[in-house]
Design goal:
Number of helices: 13
Distance between the termini: 21 Å
Strand order of the largest sheet: 3-4-5-6-7-8-9-10
Radius of gyration: 24 Å
Largest sheet: 8 strands, parallel, barrel
Number of strands: 20
Strand content: 15-25%
Shape: elongated
Helix content: 25-40%
Length: 418
């Protein structure tokens, strides 16, 4: 895992030489870093909590928020992000595997941690040792989990959540297998069902599209299966099915707990129809949490007709000033941004040219007055009053925001600012 550093904004302003708009954090060695804003992360969590618990709604208990910190916290640094979010009031955390959950526990997280992609045979003891709540997605997993739980000194049953597959055809028991599940659970004296969930395939899409209809069908299948479970005398516990898009635009799915992923880190998913983005951003305003930054390490003036980078894919059409950045696809700058993307330099956009290399990227700063070696470059994120959003960068290369954020590699230090 990459080195991490936590600094205050006041300290940040005192550190480093900066000849542009973005503030420079003090980073030892190679000048590339991911700046993570604790205040933006806290803002997003609280905005989500308030949004799914409207003041005019009469509920006995407020809806819970399970913060998704899998994939190293969407590239933001899972354990440190979990610390910030626990302090801000997150009720649960979601990880992919037992190993991710253990890393989060190691930094002192005490709130429940849900292992979303379940467990592999042999991992049961780690779940119990570190108090990680597994998701069960096959009935045959119950027996192994029950055997492991029977060896505990504690007498109370070990909790787990059940995942239902309502149409994504990925993980989860089919709604028709509810009776089988209930029968198997009745044989497990050391387990207790703590929650039931499903996952939407297309919650960002709305009618009249086929994907929009799919989500409605998934909702129906889920709630029918849930009622069957209750009819069999099984208390489902915490019911949760709303991911990021459903949180923003499908209040009927909020149930007992919601699971924000990419919206927690400051970005709404792509909606269909696209006009829904502006409406969702207005209803649930978010702040980008991470800014990926580097510096200019070389400048050169080259004549018209000169090639730049591998394969001579870019040829200058005029005398140009080319800057080399100390970050490449080995750091999280997608190779596909070459010739298609831009970065922020002194508050202005400069095009990425040629093919992005593993360790460096070239940009054309001919139109950026005063660009110098040492200038801080924002690949995406916030640069003073300017924003170069990660979701806009992702759309430009035909991918999703979470893909871009998770691509920031382990060799890039995460710098946490207040």
């Amino acid at each position: 895992m990459a080195d991490t550093l936590t600094i205050s904004r006041k300290t940040q302003r005192r550190q480093g030489s900066q000849k542009g708009s973005a503030k420079a954090a003090k980073v030892e060695g190679r000048p590339v870093w991911a700046e993570v804003s604790a205040s933006a992360l806290t803002h997003n969590l609280r905005a989500i909590r308030n949004y799914v618990n409207p003041a005019d709604e009469k509920r006995k208990t407020p809806r819970l928020v399970l913060s998704i910190v899998k994939g190293n916290g969407y590239g933001h640094g899972g354990p440190r992000v979990a610390q910030i979010l626990e302090k801000a009031g997150s009720d649960w955390f979601g990880v992919t595997s037992a190993s991710e959950g253990i890393e989060v526990r190691k930094v002192g997280i005490r709130k429940p941690i849900l292992v979303l992609t379940s467990f592999w045979p042999g991992e049961e003891e780690n779940l119990l040792k570190h108090n990680l709540t597994p998701v069960v997605h096959r009935c045959d997993q119950l027996a192994a989990l029950d055997r492991a739980a029977s060896k505990r000194a504690k007498r109370e049953p070990f909790g787990f959540h059940l995942k239902m597959d309502t149409g994504m055809n990925r993980l989860g028991i089919a709604p028709g297998d509810v009776d089988c599940f209930a029968g198997q659970l009745a044989k497990c004296r050391h387990l207790q069902l703590g929650g039931v969930l499903t996952h939407f395939a297309s919650s960002e899409a709305f009618a009249p599209s086929a994907q929009g209809e799919q989500t409605r069908e998934q909702e129906e299948h889920f709630f029918v299966a849930l009622e069957r479970l209750r009819a069999l005398g099984v208390d489902p516990g915490i019911v949760h099915l709303a991911n990021s898009a459903a949180i923003a635009a499908r209040p009927e799915t909020w149930a007992d707990m919601v699971r924000p992923g990419v919206i927690l880190y400051g970005y709404h998913p792509g909606y269909d129809p696209a006009e829904m983005r502006a409406e969702s951003e207005r209803k649930l305003p978010l702040k980008p949490v991470m800014s990926l930054r580097t510096r200019i390490i070389s400048l050169r003036r080259i004549p018209a007709g000169s090639s730049v980078g591998y394969g001579a894919k870019f040829i200058t059409e005029r005398p140009s000033i080319i800057a080399v950045l100390a970050a490449g696809y080995g750091d999280g700058v997608p190779r596909s941004l070459g010739g298609r993307g831009c970065v922020l330099v002194r508050g202005k956009l400069a095009p990425i040219i040629g093919i992005v290399s593993m360790d460096v990227t070239m940009i054309d700063v001919t139109e950026i007055p005063g660009a110098e070696i040492g200038d801080v470059i924002t690949i995406y994120g916030v640069d003073g009053e300017h924003t170069h959003p990660a979701n806009q960068v992702a759309r430009g290369i035909g991918t999703v925001t979470s893909d871009l954020l998770c691509a920031v590699s382990a060799r890039v230090p995460r710098v946490y600012v207040s």
